[in-house]
């Protein structure tokens, strides 16, 4: 497969949504790449510098924690955009052969596309095994290809169900444990003139993909050791079952179809327009940062495990999560690997991350700590949601096989979800259309589809 085709397959990352980043200015000399403009303060000016692109909200504190505790290396941090804009800049640097940072923050579902271009360093030769024990098997699988490791996990998104206690109590409903119970509860609320029980936003294709995986779907199977071949099964029966289920909820008027992460969606959460929110462990931080849970609705939210298809055989799935990877343009790959392994891995940074709900940490040292495990989450009215819901979900997560063109796939799934919500196609029809689109796309990029 030629590199031009590979680049085309991955460059769809520019389609991803963005949040504004920030920039800054202290200068520092370096033996590494692109460390002339640093947002942060360099504490030990004589130490070699490693450039980092990252967008975590508390990254300034994380970088300061690292630099203050290291005399052998200093981090020069820059925000190059969040998600899509950063990926687009990275893609440009890959094609130009220059301009990439030494270490880059990447979401786990974006790793494969950049691995395929030889843009990321295999960290197994730089001591990745030293930190493997700090992570669950699932989160480690997400950053690995065979014996190779291409990033260090930091945060994740084990999925669960957030719900309004006031709404469920009003209609005499217990948190549903299965998707069948979820539909029954939704119908009961509708029949009583209540609000939408949930929401199928078209702009959360990664979440919908995770829900397909929960039913047993394996949308993509791809092995970097066999670069030209990929399996695509978006029209499998489990995938159709999930899409048909949600299409049915929409058709019956049991769930809304509002795009999430919008002003309208947030106002709906505040106003009790939705009884549940199927989301990830990072959702409380996103919601509180948007003003949810701070007014009259304070104390009304709670969390429950993700409803299951088979309560006797629960399956945990993940939505979101970011990593630190070393780019092949790094000036000193070994030193950059030390930064990737050590950045956002110290107790102070991890504690700040989870206490401010900036991240859901994947580091087992945090997940096993009394402070995190027994934390009475204020957003959930003092519920110990970490211990009861999110930690068990994370530890049970088995990992996922991502495609080399995740963002292009997400764009197509989003388009099909729009059709579902408009009543133009059934869930099964959407799955069939999606299969055809992605098979044709993969072939056009030089892949052999099995």
From TrEMBL:
PANTHER family, per the entry: ARABINOSE-BINDING PROTEIN-RELATED, BLR3389 PROTEIN
Keywords: Signal, Sugar transport, Transport
Top-level taxon of origin: Bacteria
InterPro entries on file: Bact_solute-bd_prot1 (IPR050490), SBP (IPR006059)
Species, as recorded: Arthrobacter bambusae
Secretion signal span: 1-28
Coiled coil: none
Protein name per the record: Multiple sugar transport system substrate-binding protein
């Amino acid at each position: 497969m030629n590199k031009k085709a590979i680049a085309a397959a991955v460059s769809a990352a520019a389609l991803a949504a963005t949040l504004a980043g920030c920039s800054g200015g202290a200068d520092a000399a370096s033996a590494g790449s692109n460390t002339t403009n640093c947002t942060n303060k360099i504490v030990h000016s004589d130490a070699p510098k490693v450039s980092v692109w990252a967008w975590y909200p508390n990254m300034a504190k994380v970088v300061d924690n690292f630099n203050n505790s290291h005399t052998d290396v200093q981090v020069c941090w820059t925000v190059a955009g969040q998600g899509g804009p950063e990926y687009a800049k990275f893609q440009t640097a890959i094609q130009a052969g220059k301009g990439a940072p030494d270490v880059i923050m990447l979401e786990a579902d974006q790793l494969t596309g950049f691995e395929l271009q030889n843009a990321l360093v295999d960290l197994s030769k730089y001591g990745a095994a030293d930190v493997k024990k700090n992570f669950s098997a699932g989160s480690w699988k997400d950053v690995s290809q065979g014996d190779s490791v291409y990033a260090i996990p930091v945060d994740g998104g084990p999925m669960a169900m957030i719900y309004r206690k006031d709404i469920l109590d009003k209609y005499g409903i217990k948190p549903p444990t299965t998707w069948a119970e979820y539909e029954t509860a939704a119908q009961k609320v509708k029949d009583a003139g209540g609000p939408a029980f949930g929401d199928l936003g078209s702009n959360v294709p990664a979440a919908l993909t995770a829900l397909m995986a929960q039913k047993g779907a394996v949308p993509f199977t791809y092995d970097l050791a066999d670069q030209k071949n990929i399996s695509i099964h978006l029209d499998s029966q489990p995938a159709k079952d999930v899409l048909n289920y949600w299409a049915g909820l929409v058709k019956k008027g049991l769930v809304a179809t509002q795009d999430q992460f919008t002003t309208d969606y947030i106002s709906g959460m505040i106003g009790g327009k939705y009884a549940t929110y199927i989301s990830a462990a990072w959702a409380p931080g996103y919601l509180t940062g948007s003003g949810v849970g701070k007014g009259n609705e304070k104390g009304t939210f709670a969390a429950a495990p993700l409803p299951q298809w088979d309560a006797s055989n629960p399956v945990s799935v993940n939505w979101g999560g970011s990593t630190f990877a070393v780019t092949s343009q790094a000036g000193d790959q070994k030193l950059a690997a030390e930064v990737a392994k050590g950045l956002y891995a110290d107790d102070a940074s991890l504690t700040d991350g989870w206490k401010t709900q900036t991240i859901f940490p994947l580091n087992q040292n945090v997940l096993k700590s009394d402070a995190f495990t027994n934390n009475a989450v204020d957003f959930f009215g003092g519920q110990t949601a970490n211990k009861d819901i999110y930690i068990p979900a994370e530890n049970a997560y088995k990992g996922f096989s991502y495609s080399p063109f995740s963002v292009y796939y997400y764009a197509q799934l989003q388009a099909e979800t729009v059709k579902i919500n408009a009543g133009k196609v059934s869930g099964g029809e959407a799955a069939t259309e999606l299969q055809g689109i992605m098979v044709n796309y993969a072939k056009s990029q030089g892949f052999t589809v099995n």
